[in-house]
Amino acid sequence: MLSNFQNLFLLAQADPAGAQGGGFNTLLFIPILFIILYFIVIRPQRNEEKKRKTMIESLQKGDVVITSSGIHGKVVEFKDNNESVVLAIAKDTNVTFNSSTILRKKEKEKEA
């Protein structure tokens, strides 16, 4: 049976390089993780934001849009250098929204 001192002696003789062999792997792991996150999360969000921005810039009077709060309305006019949009949401009811609240343009329904 080994005493406590003999156990400590055997542990001290163990290969120290094996215990520290993760430094380079850790340094390599961080950039790889960032690259994976970029292609999975950041890049698709940027593409969606670009599409949304071009959609907002291409809005014209008469387009039917949906705001981020779920309000459907028809574009009546633009204010403040296209920073604001006036939407007709009911008969004789116009509401002004920030252009950034426009979520999407509703496609015109095909008539049968």
UniProtKB/TrEMBL annotation:
Membrane topology summary: Single-pass membrane protein
InterPro entries associated with the record: Preprotein_translocase_YajC
Lineage: superkingdom: Bacteria
Main location, first listed in the record: membrane
Protein's cellular compartments: Cell membrane
Transmembrane segments: 20-42
Pfam family, one: YajC
Entry keyword Oxidoreductase: no
GO annotation, cellular component aspect: plasma membrane
Gene Ontology BP terms: protein transport
Keywords: Cell membrane, Membrane, Protein transport, Translocation, Transmembrane, Transmembrane helix, Transport
Keyword Transferase: no
Cited PANTHER family: SEC TRANSLOCON ACCESSORY COMPLEX SUBUNIT YAJC
Similarity comment text for this entry: Belongs to the YajC family.
Protein name according to UniProt: Sec translocon accessory complex subunit YajC
Originating organism: Leptospira neocaledonica
Highest classification ranks of the organism: Bacteria, Pseudomonadati, Spirochaetota, Spirochaetia, Leptospirales
